[in-house]
Amino acid sequence: MAGNILNYYAGGNTARGFYSLYESNLEGLDRVFILKGGPGTGKSTMIKKLGQRWNEAGFDIEYLHCSSDTGSVDGLIIRSIGVGIVDGTAPHVIEPTAPGAIEEYINLGEAWDSKKLAHRKIEILELAHQKKQAFETAYATFNKALKIHDEWERYFIHNMSFERANKLADELIEKLFDGNTLTKQADVKHRFLGAATPVGAVDFVPNITEGLKKRYFIKGRPGSGKSTLLKKLVKHCEKTGYDVEVYHCGFDPHSLDMVVVRELGFAIFDSTAPHEYFPSRDGDEILDMYDLTIREGTDERYEKEIEKVSKQYSEKMKEAISHLAEAKEWHLKLEAIYVNAMDYKVIDEKTEWIHEQMEKLVKH
């Protein structure tokens, strides 16, 4: 019987540039294989092959998806055997903590024909430059969108009852934790539930919340206290010893989108666009922050202003996504050059070697 698969992002294209949360998810693993090699060298394919093999053998696995290509994965974690396999090339460069003892570099460049690549050096450099420029433009545009979003938030922050928001947080914490504490240190994992990708916003909310008894769908406007509520829940978990999965906002990683506490069987998440969901099963409940914390009539009072800033934000986000799509086009052209210079038999041998190392860890 196959194991479970958990899907999420550990890195994202954000308003603050490429933002990495890899360190949090690799922490505590006994062995981490860091894959090095250019585009098209088979990193994602290798990760998927190993993931499928071990999952079909009954192991629970975690896939760390690629925010720049929805068809690729950047990592695999099998926590029950303490192993991780990750793409360690830019922009998600992994800093080893104990090289050789925990982390091991796997050089996929051994499989390419350097002479073929040397003949296309100028083309490779130009394509890499164009790709970098597209990403930088995308990040700068996301940052402009964030400033517009901050303006949008102000209309609601200035009409918010912080007293009611604090009371709601306290009541929710009491309801969820019932005053209980655990005599251990909380294991806190920081992730993204979704990402801005070349095809738009993508998320894994249904997969992440699958099997949980209780799901709270937070509704509300920008600036209505959704992220602040989630941060208070995280602090309470840290204080009381409950393991917690902290899912950051794929647009602004300084904000939170979801908190999952599997020991208590609940998830609570920002269920507004671009990851908007509605109750669909027993145990689902809506928390409407607009109704609960914002002064009545705020939408109507600032209708024209909100409509204008909302439109500006949407336009900037679409523009930023178009630059991510452009970056992917340059990447695909780079990839084609490397694919043509690869001997994938070497990659297959390296895949088998990693599998054997994993088997040894299981036996020991």
UniProtKB/TrEMBL annotation:
Every KAP NTPase domain range: 30-166
Entries under InterPro entries matching the protein: KAP_P-loop, P-loop_NTPase
Top-level lineage group: Bacteria
Name assigned to this protein: KAP NTPase domain-containing protein
